[in-house]
Design brief:
Elements: E1 6-17, E2 20-32, E3 37-41, H1 48-55, E4 63-72, E5 75-76, H2 82-88, E6 93-96, H3 110-121, H4 126-139, H5 145-149, H6 158-170, E7 176-180, H7 188-205, E8 208-213, H8 216-222, E9 225-230, E10 233-239, H9 240-245, H10 250-256, E11 305-309, E12 312-315
Parallel strand pairs: 3-8, 3-9, 6-7, 7-8
Antiparallel strand pairs: 1-2, 1-4, 4-5, 9-10, 10-12, 11-12
């Protein structure tokens, strides 16, 4: 069996606030193998992005990783010195942010930013670095890449800036990419092109990809496996077709049936009732119980992770029969 690129075990990330401790990520565990795409899905505030930030060591005060292990190809990232982790970021691990201006410096030209990134991690000439940067822009479908390299970020459209950021993440061929809804700002045509290119590159380079999103339609066409998060925990995970076609957790079922495209013509949507709970004042037991139509007294205790099929598990006292 191929060793995973990334192993996350029992990850817990908290933020200290004036009104209490906010547990943004609660005992999260998963692996991602070579060439594999893991879709990390859930509502806003479920802990998806903080999970990604924790993997890259981007959590700072008032936040902190309180427990857990993060292994990248045999290296314990939590034990690395700050300088060593900084060298790893952008080289062996890359992150694509939802907002491209979190990555791009507004006062530097695109070529300066991409070339300096390459020179910081690769022993190549500046001319060779320029060639690599130009090839990366062409790879994500940017027309006239040599001309775009000479542009400043404000001279590009929002979609073009996002493609530059995706190119920057891909050009050094990292072992792992964490992508936080990177195609949200792109039109459907460009989004499809980017997803197709990333699928090819992940398979060819055997790069592991964590795709953070709330868009289940993107996950259905891109990911191999999916992990569904709610209130800081993974509540269901497994092969993407199994989970989306036969959801076992009531929350997963609710997400899928809230999508208009999954509803018959003329039929009302079936949104999940209620609101997500405060991560500072979570209910006792199962956090989804106040919104769940299947909840009973047993849900007053937190459900343990239970295997229901090879490579598939969930946390629920009353799983749906369709998922069995």
């Amino acid at each position: 069996m191929t060793a995973p690129i990334l192993s996350v075990n029992g990850l817990t990330t908290v933020f200290e606030t004036r009104i209490g401790t906010l547990t943004a990520v609660n005992d999260v565990s998963f692996t991602v193998g070579p060439g594999e795409v893991l879709g990390l899905v859930g509502e806003s505030g479920s802990g998806k992005t903080i999970t990604g930030f924790s993997i890259l060591g981007l959590i700072d005060r008032p936040g902190a990783i309180r427990a857990g292990e993060i292994w990248l190809k045999g290296t314990d990232l939590r034990k690395l010195a700050p300088d060593a982790l900084r060298r790893l970021r952008g080289d062996r691990i890359a992150m694509i942010f939802q907002d491209p201006m979190m990555t791009l410096n507004p006062v530097l030209r695109i070529d300066t930013q991409l070339i300096e990134t390459i020179l910081a991690h690769r022993d190549v000439s500046r001319g060779r670095a320029r060639e690599m940067a130009e090839a990366a822009l062409a790879q994500v479908g940017i027309p006239s890449p040599a001309e775009r390299l000479r542009a400043y970020p404000h001279e590009l459209s929002g979609g073009m800036r996002q493609r530059v950021v995706i190119a920057a993440a891909l050009m050094l061929e990292p072992d792992l990419i964490v992508a936080d809804e990177p195609t949200t700002a792109l039109d459907v045509t460009i989004q499809s092109q980017i997803l197709f290119e990333m699928q090819k590159l992940m398979a060819a380079r055997q790069t592991a990809l964590i795709w953070i999103t709330h868009d289940l339609t993107v996950v259905a066409g891109l990911a191999h496996r999916v992990a569904v998060m709610y209130a800081g925990r993974i509540v269901e995970t497994g092969p993407v077709d199994d989970v989306l076609d036969r959801p076992a957790h009531p929350y997963t079922h609710g997400l899928i049936h809230s999508i208009p495209s999954a509803t018959a013509r003329g039929q009302r949507l079936a949104p999940i009732r209620g609101m997500t709970p405060s991560l500072i004042h979570l209910p006792e037991g199962c956090a989804f119980a106040p919104r769940c139509g299947r909840a009973d007294a047993a849900c007053g205790t937190a459900p343990a992770a239970t295997d229901i099929a090879p490579g598939r598990w969930l946390r629920c006292h009353h799983p749906l029969e369709a998922g069995a």
